[in-house]
Acyl carrier protein (Acanthopleuribacter pedis), 78 residues
Amino acid sequence: MSELSFEQFKKIVAEQLGIDKARLAETSHLTDDLGADSIAMVNIVAEVEALLDEEFDEVPFEDIETLGQAYKLLTEQG
C-alpha cells in the first residue's frame, strides 16, 4: 500500500472541485469554503482508494467538516 501525502490529497481535491490547489488549507471547510457536495466527496474518496490501491469501509461524511479532517480520516483508514 502507498502512502498519501497531504499535497497529493490537496491535488485530488482541487481537481475534483475545479479549484486552485493554493486555496486549500487544512482548515478549509469542505462545503462552506470549497463548495464540496456529497458527489464530490465520493469521487475524492474513490480517487484516494485508487491511488492507495485500498478499499475503505463506509466513510462518515457527516462527521467531516474540514480538509484536514478528511485527510486524517482517509489516511487512518488506509
